[in-house]
Design goal:
three-stranded antiparallel β-sheet; 199 residues; two-stranded antiparallel sheet; mainly alpha
Length: 199
């Protein structure tokens, strides 16, 4: 960050490649590549959560993929520190993208690091199947749908999806916080084991 002579500017890394949304538009991503991207994202979440940072707007457009296949989490514009308890009830504004918001955030205006894990679960579902787990198209409908219907199982949407991977995604995007992964480290570990062929 530069602040000189009344001029402020940021210098950021240029990532040559594409975002995950663009990659998904090219067609179904091979399973080893999907698992690698998800594992890297889980590792990234593990790192920021360890430093007390919540991303709060994780979505395919905010995951950059380099030409070498390295995934980088971007856009921390609405991120906050865990100790910052500002909420929707104080600001009156909900932050994030409706499709990836956790149920608890929609319901109470508050979410911890497990909200980021939920978002990664939804991203995983999309990256694996090429389809959204939700059928609604408007913001409000998208948010309410998760309270009314359960997303179709990955095994139904994509029968070729490995059973263990489907279980990981289901746990990551569990409606219940207590049934969800309790840390990105746990999610990362399961993805690493799957990548190594040790479910």
């Amino acid at each position: 960050y530069f602040d000189q002579n009344n001029v402020q500017a940021y210098a950021m890394e240029y990532v040559e490649g594409k975002d995950l949304r663009e990659r998904m538009r090219e067609g179904l991503i091979p399973m080893p590549e999907v698992i690698s991207i998800l594992g890297q994202c889980a590792s990234g979440l593990e790192a920021i959560h360890k430093d007390g940072i919540l991303h709060r707007d994780l979505k395919p457009e905010n995951i950059l993929i380099t030409r070498k296949g390295i995934a980088k989490i971007a856009d921390f514009g609405v991120a906050r520190l865990k100790g910052d308890f500002s909420s929707i009830t104080k600001s009156g504004v909900m932050v994030g993208t409706p499709k990836y918001l956790s149920p608890e955030y929609i319901e109470t205006g508050e979410s911890d690091h497990r909200g980021d894990i939920y978002a990664l679960g939804v991203i995983a579902y999309e990256a694996i199947s090429g389809k959204s787990p939700f059928r609604s198209t408007t913001g409000v409908s998208l948010m309410l749908e998760r309270f009314k219907t359960k997303p179709p199982a990955l095994a139904v949407v994509l029968p070729d999806c490995p059973v263990e991977l489907a279980k990981i995604v289901q746990k990551a995007m569990s409606f219940s916080i207590s049934n969800r992964y309790q840390s990105a480290a746990e999610l990362h570990e399961d993805l690493e084991l799957l990548a190594a062929g040790k479910p």
